[in-house]
Design goal:
alpha/beta; Rossmann fold; four-stranded antiparallel sheet; 14 strands
Length: 317
Amino acid sequence: MMYTSFACVILLLASGPLFGSLFERLMFKSEPRAETTFRDVIENRSGVITVDKDDVVYGGGVYDGAFKIDPLNDTNGIFRAFAIAALHPNPRHVLVIGLSSGSWAQVFVNHPRVEDATIVEINPGYLPLIRNRSVVAGLLKNRKVHVAIDDGRRWLLAHPDAQFDFILMNTTHNWRANATNLLSVEFLRLIRKHLNPGGILYYNTTNSERVLITGATVYPFALRVGNFIAVSDSPILLHRAMWRRILESYELDGRRVFDSSKSPDRKCIDSWVAMPESEQQSDASQFEATIEDRASLLRRFQRQQLITDDNMGTEWQ
């Protein structure tokens, strides 16, 4: 009995040094970052969420966003979230599939013309993390917001009458397990049933040519914005003048995002609104700020195979 108790004490004392940085070592292996300690670790049946000292979020060991909304120091491509204001003139009823850090949703629900927002997130572990970050904590207190803990595809099937003007998905990497559920031809056709006339689906392609060609094929109208694609059954335009007006007055939790009296803020708005059209494939900067129409996408990626539930795109390959 005494030896058993002694062994338990030894194991308890050794558990910290042995396992205290387990997830850091699993993720970063021999990289210098393996010596750091995650600020937050959430484990549940949906997976493992970790947050580093810079408030960068990892879901299941893969980059999953950041608790950051800073257009002047745009390290997480937040300009793509603000670009929603240029795509749809009146997105009153919106759906967000995937919450993660809540940074994108925080931008979207504060759009001055959004009246209500349904957010579907499969992992409830993100909610306490959001509550503890001032930059996004207001999201869960916003009266426009209704959060459902569920799988996005399952939620849509369970709510056949739900209709939206705009659907946003900051989709994870196209090669991850279960990514096909949100990228396939079948899913895009399901989304179509939930779009109001003139409605837009806007989602992250994570620079996948197959994701781009699939979206541009299923829908008759498409526009690439950075590494996102907007698709619809109605024409899609980048309303630059409208975008400027909304950006100049954009508020997050009652605070202006841009100060028009400051030169850096004006230059940021100018650069976004002047986003050029480009047929060039994105370079090493995955957040390259260019747009591209459907005709160009179809021409460039015509040899790529569409993603379906059966072939699963690049998942598992």
